[in-house]
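Sequence of NfeD-like C-terminal domain-containing protein (Fulvitalea axinellae).
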Amino acid sequence: MVLEWIIIVSLLVIGAILIVAEIILIPGTTVVGIFGLAVTAGGIAIAYYEMGPQVGTMVLGGTIIMDVAILIRSFQSGAWKRWALKSKNPAKVNVVPKKELRVGMEGVCVSDLKPVGNAEFSGKRYSVRSEGPFVDSGRKVKIILLYPDRIIVEAVEEKREE
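Predicted 3D structure, token representation.
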């Protein structure tokens, strides 16, 4: 009888830990939460099977109260703040300054465009996209389309002297 209680309590504690971990530490995975619910249900099922319906119902009620209390306490204590992301990403979306750039403007690639890379126009670097084939670094490019968030370029054909 003592062994059954050890098994039941162990399963309920492990299940509660997994459920709290799912909700507070690794939300969105659902695998850990489902496994926690399964372990908890297993502990409750063993209580019903081994101890009878009266003890099983008491274990079920105690488990619900215990799990809710643990979740409330976890949120109140701020334990999740230790693992929460605190830094900010200062990066911005490529905003195309319409006054500085225009369709037909030529520049030079400062990195390979495969198909995205960097090009320099009027002394400033911009993230650009090639609509055609890959463009090697150092080649001249021309702006063919301007969108609010991206610049589309194509390679300029080098004129050959005959």
